[in-house]
Write a structure and sequence with these properties.
mainly alpha; 3 helices; 0% strand; elongated
Length: 75
Amino acid sequence: MTKYGKKAGEKVEETMHEMKRGTLRSGSGKKVKSRKQAIAIGLSEARKAGGKVPAKKTAGRKRTSKRTAKKSSSK
């Protein structure tokens, strides 16, 4: 099963062409120079357009280690 749909590929292709022409801008209005950022913008646009794109990865929550939990409970 594919992760990305056809629309996602088309959007990424469009944004890559814009980046290479120098017309792609980020949300803050600055010119995009990074290939990874151009792909991320393309995937974001595909999501908004309803294309088949996996959800964004989010940062995991930090957990307290067992060692510090044992120290505080043993006193």
